[in-house]
Amino acid sequence: MSGSGQPRTPLPRATTRLNAPRLALVETNVGGEPRLVDRELVVAVREEWRVVDRWWTDEPVDRRYFEVVLESGRNVCVYRDGERRCWFTQRA
Amino acid sequence: MIACLLIPGFELRAALRSRPRLAVVPAALAPEPGREQLVGPVTAAAEAAGVTAGMRLGEALATCPHLVLVDPDPAGAEREWEGVLRRLEDAGFAVDPVEPGVVVFETRGVERLYGGVEAALTRALVSVGPAWDPRAGAGQRRFVALAAASVARPGQAVIVEGEEEQAFLEPLPLSLLPLDEGRYAELEGLGVRTLGSLAALPGGAVAERLGREGKQAWSLARGGERRRVRGRSPAAELVEALSFPEAVANEITLRRAFGALLDRMLARPERAGRPFRKLALGARLVGGGSWRRTVTLREASGERGRIRAALGPKLAEIPAPVVELRLEAVELAEGTGQQLALVAPEGEEADARLREGLRQVRASAGGGAVGGIVEVAPWSRIPEARALVVPRDV
User: Fold this and answer.
1) For residue B174, what pLDDT is reported?
2) Nearest to B12 by CA among B76, B62, B64
3) What percentage of chain A carries pLDDT values higher than 90?
4) Chain B contact residues (CB < 8 Å to A)
5) Which domains does chain B have, with CATH numbers?
6) Is there a domain that residue A65 lies in?
7) Which of these, B12, B66, B176, B384, is most buried using a 10 Å CB contact count?
8) What is the pLDDT of residue A9?
């Protein structure tokens, strides 16, 4: 799988991908940075990076990752999928 | 009688099953990576264009520039061949496979069932199916049966009675004998071009000139040994496979995947504790080809460490990145008592306890509750492409 929340090719006998992304509910500010993640306020953005890969294939990857600290103190990694135009959470 | 069923160019036919369009154009089986650059079996159109099996690749392409090279698919050929053998077994023949495309069997047990040798051979040809263009031969000896099948047309059965054997073999070419290319040339240089002319030579002189191989060929030219055919033991049907989301070339990753497959295979209840006699490791390659190696264990074993040591080094021989890795139990030994160790190796107790714990987890939480992590592309920038969780039945 490349850059999606669900596996695109079925794998036999429940073989699954480790650390598969899950859909996340994210609200952003005007700069496109997360303001709320799963209805929890973001208090700090620790790091931000981009992953652009496989642009030569039918399944290109274009992600903008943010490692954020939430109000509860949790450290969460979220990304916006530029291809699918939605947000996911994933341990990077 | 001993019968032989022959499917010429079996590997090519098997590889063309998924691309039947190529069967009518000049095509040849490409040489396996790392092997001598000789083309394998060729299609009729390629033969008409002057290409023959065993020709050097460069020469073949120079002879026929439109020649299509078909990637070998040994795993697919093996699977198809197993299907052919099973169809013959279902028809009542106790088969003894020689190589993919050649199988021998005794007709004695089924002659009364089918109403004679010819009817039995016809039944064998029908059970294989006309798509493979099988041909059959029968005689009192293996080599005679093989020679008879070699001269038969597709779908035809040739029966050679005992007294006709020598007369039948005499005019046949030397190419039926298992000799090196140089030996044929040497014999032709001496004016020996047929089985009859070789058989007419004194055995001692042939052995002196051509060595053991020549003596064996001389013996075959006279019909070969009278040996009974022993049917194979039924093949086991234990297969474990692991598909990778992306092609994997890293040997460490492949070793880990192999370890996971082995654990799953060892836990299969169908095995009923029996040790493995023969195992096959196969891979589907990224370009569409395949790879397969069969290993017969010197001593039948169900020990993880021993099997890993026997099969693990084969992974380094895989010629291209792998899309799917398969482990097959080809033959299981009957359960026998084994000598216990006086002192258990270090760590065995802890290992046994850990396995027992995992077994309990699986019993309470169900199948798939215990998994192992197999790294497939740890260097990937995409986190979910780095590793797989593979269920382990401990």
Assistant:
1) 84
2) B76
3) 64
4) 241-243, 245, 368, 373, 381-391
5) 1-169 (3.40.1170.60), 170-221 (1.10.150), 238-391 (3.30.1490.100)
6) yes
7) B12
8) 44
